[in-house]
Every structure is written in structure tokens, then in C-alpha cells.
């Protein structure tokens, strides 16, 4: 492809590329928690998508129907998500030490219950959450109009990445975290309460998932099965990026975001193949994911 | 009566019940029983992976669906012969199982769960979006199947419900016996070895990867076999055959309820969840997920070994109770 051809391709699909980035950053907020829970607790949390689902409906209810300011709504829902994280920790306690499947099944059972409860409360019809007032404009980038809200989501995702990356790679707490991922028993023997670290990660991940639901409302439609959809996306992000890696979750999210938007824009009918292809290529080249060990 | 004889007698009684089923069940129930049987075989094929090999798959419906769509596509475009459909569908699903296996068995634990789940879900979305082949949400309706080669004398599989039933029963029995022989064979024993201690099997010179891929291939093929049977009796297939809640997860639940590594357990567990869903959906139709969710959590908490596992430990307990008074005699001898 010549340079002119490349520029013209870039220009034609500019909005799709930006949409991919926005979706990618949204997925990152979700996948980060899931990946850390995997890495540290060795648990496949199938209720992670349900937290997004709960967050997105609660956000819609509070911000749109009750008229609570968007930022306050986001805060409230995140706190509810944190609470759910504690509940999740309690429900996983009886099966701790059993196989991966049993633990995943408990979270699956909870996911089914939460999913059905949301349809009992909010019905099965489709909703679209509007953007918050203060972000309801669009701006011009390279001659294309683009909504500010999507740009704000990108910023949120990127800031989160920088924050968490610094926290984990550059602080004492992060060192404990990384060591616990490597060998939890050894860290416990050094006198650190590993259980508390695990609880913190589970709760934090749950809060992030609920938060992702709120900010995802205006980007993804609000339907009863959006929770399952984003859960699968988050899983694919982790397969691509590598288990328990923050950079991996970040890069994997961007790749998946682009495959999902640019892929649909270019080859709509075969976007599922592209999804498969992206996963298969990574697994052939690097079975542990791009940034996995 | 010895426990072994009791077990054999129970199995014989079950078989007699199944063989005479259509005589006292109505058409609707006979059809339902045939669907339960194919689902039971599907759950048993998953047992080969989860129970015997220790590969926790959450995407087994992928192969069930490939078999189902394979049979339907063959029926629409190539032949009405049910045996040919069954054979090709099984082969296609086995191929898919082996391929997914070749990727997935390089990972372990949580990663394997995630990979199989993602595979199943992507295939489900593919079945919706690839409309030129699958007709999207409309699905594929197929005509009557034939037992004879060619389309000369089609024996109407729709005309008599019990013809369909006995065809399904025979096929499921063949599949089940195949699994039974397989797990008793050296190959099956090696799979258990892989589950119990992978490192030791490797140091004994077994190619663990090859055994795992083999298990994925066979389990995938049998799942496809069950999927093809299901589609042949329903004469219809759509993307919901790949459904996580209706097939992948439900089969895992059947397995957990029935007991892992028992083969018969998952079949009985499958019958249980299938009938439960049928009964519940007539009462509160839409809220099956919440019931299923509660069942999953309760079963995992309360019956870690499943019903068959419970029966086994009960039997062991009885045997021990009976054996204790004999011990002094043996000592004096």
C-alpha cells in the first residue's frame, strides 16, 4: 500500500479507528479487574460481566430517570460494585481450594441470578443512555467531527492505565501484589496478609466493572445480554494480552476495540472470523498472550 | 445381594424402561425422552474431558452445534441419509475438537476455561452473523431423513415418533458404550493418569499433549454426534444450539449433579436438569436462569462429588460396615 493509499485509508476510517480506541479503553476498565483477579486469585470470575450489567442499568436508572448528576452516579454505582465485590469474596470462600471449575461455577450461578434479576427489575427492552450534559458536544479532529464523550472515555482509560501501572510497578504495595501473584504462600510466610490483598483486588475489580457499566452506557446499548457480551470481550482481551499483565490488558483492549469497530466497518459479515483470527494468531505466536509469561 | 449385582440390575431395569418407553409414553413425551437421551450423551462426552482428563471446558456446545449444523447442511444440500449425516457431522465436530484442542491444551487451569468459553461464544456469534450458511436467526429447517442410501425410498422419520425414538436410542447406546470401552481402555486409563499427575505421566514417557488433544477430538466428535441426533429429530437448527446457558453450562451442571468421571452420572444429571427446565418453564417461563443459577450454587456447595459420587461413598460406607465384624475371624485363622 502506498503512502497516499494509507493516508486515504486512514482518513476514510478515521471515525471507526477512534471508535475502536474508545471501545478499547472501555474494555480496558473492565478487563483490568478481571485480569488481576485471574492473576492473583486464580479464579475465573464469570460474574464480572454481571457487574458491568448491574452498573449500566443502575447508571441509567440513577442518571437518566432519577436525575442524579452523572459523576455522582458513577461514584455511587462504583461503591455498590465494591460492595458486591465483598459479597463475591464471601460466596467464594466455601469453594476456596477446590478446582478452578467449581469456583467458576459459583460465579456463573451468581451471574445467572444477577442477570435474571436485572430483567425482572428493568425488563428486556433496549435502552440507550444519553451522554452526560457537560460532554454532549462534538469536536473537530483532522476535519472529522467526533463526540467529546468518547474522547473522555479514552482519557479515563488511559489515566487508569498510567495510575495502575505506576501503582503496581513502582510502589511497595505493587511489589507485594506482584510477589503474591508469583507465590502467595511465600508472601504469606513473610508476614503479609495475602487474604487481605486478595480481597482488595476482588473488591477493586468489582468496583471497576460497575464503573465501566456506567461509562459504557452511552457507548454500548443497554440490553440484558450486554453483560455476557462484554465478559466475552474481556476474556478475549486477556487471551490476547496475557494473564495478569496490565500492559497486556491495555494493548489487548486496543487491539480488540479496533477489531470490533474497524473490522465491522470493513468486513461486517465476517467480523466474528476476525475475532477468532486475532485470538488464534496470538495463540500460535505467543501461547501465553502478548505480554504473558 | 452384592452392590455390584444391584448396580447391574438397576442398569438393566433402566435399559428395559428405555426400550419400552414409547409403549406407554405419548408422542410428546417420547420425543422429549429422545431429546433427553441425546443431551445425556452430550453431557457424557463432556465427562470424558472434565471428569476423566481434567480439562474443564466451558465451550462444549461449540462441537454440539457444529455437529447439529453439519447434519442440517448435509440434509439440505447433499443427502437425506441419516447415517451419512451422522457420520460426516461427527467427523467435522471431531476435527473441530482436535483443532481447538491443539490450541487450548497448551494452556491450563483458568486459562483453559477462558479459552474454551471464548471459542464457544465466538462460534455462537458466527452462527448468527454468517447468514449465507446458517440463515442467521431464522435457522435451517430440514426435510425428513432416510435410512436407505440415496433418496429412493425415504423412510419417513417424521411419520412415526417411535421410529425416530429407537433410532436415537440405538445411536445413543452406541455412543455410550463407545465411551465406556474407551475409559476402560489403556487410552482411557492414561487420560486419568494425565488428570491425576501430569508430570509423572510425562516422565513415564507419555505424550501428555497428544493425549489431551486426543480427548478433545473424541469428546468433540461425540458432542457433534449428539448434536446431529438432536437436529435430526427436531428437523430444525439455529444459532441457539451454541447457547452457553442451554448447552455448555447446562451440560457442566448435569455433570456436577450426576458426578464427575462416572459417565452414567452425567446422563442421569442431564435428564434431571432437562426435566426440571421443562417443568419449570411451564410455570414461570422466562425466569429459568435464576433457578438454574441457584441450583448451580447449591450443588457446588453441597454435593461436590455429585449424586453418583454420593452413591459411591455410601456403597463404600456400607461395605466397610459389613466388613468390620469379619476382621476378628480372619485374624484367628
Describe the protein.
The complex is a heterodimer of chains A (about 290) and B (about 325). Chain A is mainly α and about 290 residues long. Chain A has helices at about 5-10, 15-40, 50-65, 70-90, 100-120, 150-170, 170-180, 185-190, 195-215, 225-240, 245-265, 270-285; strands at about 140, 145. In chain A, strands 1-2 form a two-stranded antiparallel ribbon. In chain A, β1 and β2 (about 145) form a beta hairpin. In chain A, α2 (about 15-40) packs antiparallel against α9 (about 195-215), α4 crosses α9 and α6 packs across α7 (about 170-180). Chain B is mainly α and about 325 residues long. A two-stranded antiparallel sheet of chain B has the order 1-2. In chain B, α3 (about 60-75) packs across α10 and α7 crosses α8 (about 185-195). Chain B is globular and about 60 Å long. Chains A and B meet through α5, α10 and α12 of A and α5, α11 and α13 of B.
**SS elements, strand count of chain A:** 2
Instruction: For the largest sheet of chain B, list the strands in their spatial order.
Output: 1-2
Strand order of the largest sheet of chain A: 1-2
- Summed up, the helix count of chain B is 15
Give the low-confidence spans of chain B.
Answer: 325-333
What is the number of helices of chain A? 12
Computed Rg of chain B: 21 Å
